[in-house]
From TrEMBL:
PANTHER family: SPORE PHOTOPRODUCT LYASE, SPORE PHOTOPRODUCT LYASE-RELATED. It comes from the Bacteria. InterPro entries: SPL (IPR049539). This is Radical SAM protein.
Length: 371
């Protein structure tokens, strides 16, 4: 009997593949996977070499595009000098996401319904091998969840499993897999539980229910985190974006308390806290795509990176509340801010990254299990 595609992939209604990628292992895998499901009849279209992009507009239906990517796969995270950046490197495996979160920045980057997967994995592995193998004493903390969700398409592509398997040879690399769905099929691809950090974003239950669509529940994410922790992995959890809404204290307190029903503080490699930030062009997109969303009308000021951010006293109040509660559960040094100033660090934590040698250095050490 054919299997049902997971709910977050059920909007996919068409597959495009670059002519040069038709016979790639990735294309074969996606074809085989779909053939074994109730969506085996999804049409495929081959994209000729001279065509650089595809147009796809068909209501809510999404397209999957298996593309030959010609750019750089290993990149720096686009942080800002004005704030403390975590120094993370991105492995670019594709673009766009099948799920829908009202606050998602990807809506401003990709305004179509095309989920792109870079199918030329040989080129990716060649570039990564050259970079990571050049000096085995240089350490890397890398992740794939910057322009897509790390595991959203894993069911069809097996991309993370391939990547993890490839990275087994590189003791100097730790990979973080950041997601809002539960897919643990990649776990079988590695013996290095110390070099893979499964990560889930968390939020208040109200935000999960009203602002995140086609994603897993908080309890499903935490159950998955517990499964990984029991298998020997350390996990990462991220509160980003923290949203100011009526009842936020109860909401974030509930999620924080819930975490420790599933995992112990020592099983968490690190946890980020990031307040909702918004590029000016994102606000009208959110208004249009999610007309019931109200948090975008909060009191915002332009930050040094040009993004709107909640007024500092409101941000700091939320951070203090959450950090205080997390500390009561035994979390401390694993906590960090995503893109905040020295002043905010000092006000909330009582210290700033320069006091411990920089945020990037600390997270690198924690990723490698040294702190
Ligand atoms: S799961 Fe992540 S990448 Fe996908 S829509 Fe939500 S915020 Fe964006």
């Amino acid at each position: 009997m054919s299997k049902r595609l997971p709910s977050h992939l059920r909007k996919i209604g068409h597959v495009f593949v670059d002519e040069s990628m038709q016979d790639s292992p990735m294309a074969r895998r996606v074809r085989d996977k779909l053939a074994g499901t109730d969506r085996a009849d999804i049409p495929w279209t081959v994209v000729p070499p001279e065509q650089d992009r595809i147009e796809f507009v068909r209501g809510e239906t999404q397209a999957l595009y298996l593309k030959e990517y010609k750019g750089k796969f290993l990149r720096f995270c686009p942080g800002t000098r004005a704030y403390h950046c975590c120094g993370y490197r991105i492995i670019h495996i594709g673009e766009n996401c099948p799920m829908a979160c009202s606050y998602c920045i990807l809506q401003a980057y990709f305004q179509d319904r095309v989920l792109k997967i870079w199918a030329n994995q040989d080129d990716l592995f060649t570039e990564l091998g050259n970079a990571f193998g050049a000096d085995r004493n240089t350490r890397y903390r890398v992740g794939t969840g910057e322009f897509t969700d790390s595991l959203a398409l894993e069911h069809l592509t097996g991309y993370s499993a391939n990547l993890i398997h490839f990275l087994e040879d590189y003791d100097n690399v730790v990979l973080e897999l950041k997601s809002k769905v539960v897919d643990l099929t990649w776990m079988d691809a590695t013996t290095r539980t110390d070099r893979v950090l499964p990560a889930w974003s968390l939020n208040a239950p109200f935000i999960n229910e009203h602002e995140e669509f086609d994603v897993s529940t908080l309890r499903e994410r935490l159950t998955a985190a517990r499964t990984c922790a029991e298998a020997g992995f350390r996990v990462c959890l991220h509160f980003d974006p923290i949203i100011h809404y009526p009842g936020w204290e109860e909401g974030y307190a509930e999620t924080i308390d819930m975490i420790f029903d599933y995992v112990k503080p020592e099983q968490i490699a690190y946890m980020s806290l990031g307040s909702f930030r918004c590029m000016p062009q994102l606000t009208p997109i959110i208004e249009n795509n999610f007309p019931d969303t109200t948090y975008i009308y909060n009191e915002f000021v332009p930050g040094l990176d040009g993004k709107a951010r909640l007024l500092r006293p409101l941000r700091v109040a939320q951070f203090k509340f959450m950090v205080d509660r997390l500390r009561k559960h035994g979390m401390d040094k694993q906590l960090y801010f995503c893109m905040e100033s020295t002043e905010v660090w000092n006000e909330v934590f009582g210290y700033a990254p320069k006091d411990f040698g920089g945020l990037g250095n600390r997270l690198m050490a924690q990723a490698f299990g040294e702190e």
